[in-house]
Design brief:
- There is one protein chain.
- By secondary structure, the chain is an all-alpha fold.
- It is built from 5 helices and 2 strands; from the N terminus they run H-H-H-H-E-E-H.
- Strands 1-2 form a two-stranded antiparallel ribbon.
- The longest helix has 37 residues.
- The radius of gyration is 23 Å and the shape is flat.
């Protein structure tokens, strides 16, 4: 049920009003409950498996090389950042929108801000993986150096960074 009362509509405001649903709508409540369950489940699994990996690595520490330990630490940091990023780019903005619906607060412009924040999630996740994990970071730096140093970046349909050997 979309809200159509005058508290949600303001024809003088150039930014469209963000309309979700009435909080008393049972379908909306079920949807929010299901989404909350999925978030709690996914974060519980992330924490559970991360703890299992760290315990396994601690138990068999003597059999892992220093580089394996460093890579595992980098991957863990990347996992933490990719797990925390949606909190700021999706959960907080959506919670703000839901609070506005619950308390019948005029939400002009909030919908735009929510959508703008959600879009950043994929950018943050891929960027953190590229910069927090050393092999990925080195590959990106190698590619950027090849692009910078070569005026002709494409040779016969293959990027020069893919074929150059700078090692």
């Amino acid at each position: 049920m979309v809200l159509r009362n005058s508290s949600w509509l303001d024809p003088s405001d150039p930014i469209p009003v963000f309309i979700i649903s009435d909080i008393s709508n049972s379908k909306f409540f079920i949807m929010i409950s299901y989404a909350t369950f999925l978030v709690i489940l996914s974060y519980s699994l992330i924490i559970f498996f991360n703890v299992k990996v760290w315990r396994f690595m601690a138990q068999y520490e003597y059999s892992f090389s220093t580089s394996t330990k460093k890579l595992q630490k980098q991957l863990t940091y990347a996992l933490i950042v990719t797990a925390v990023a949606p909190v700021f780019t999706a959960f907080f903005p959506l919670i703000l929108a839901i609070i506005c619906v619950f308390f019948h607060i005029k939400t002009s412009g909030v919908g735009l801000l929510v959508m703008m924040a959600i879009v950043w999630n994929s950018t943050i996740n891929s960027t953190c993986a590229n910069f927090l994990v050393k092999p990925y970071r080195e590959a990106v730096i190698k590619m950027l150096k090849a692009l910078k140093n070569s005026p002709d970046t494409i040779i016969h349909g293959v990027p020069t960074w893919a074929t150059s050997n700078t090692s």
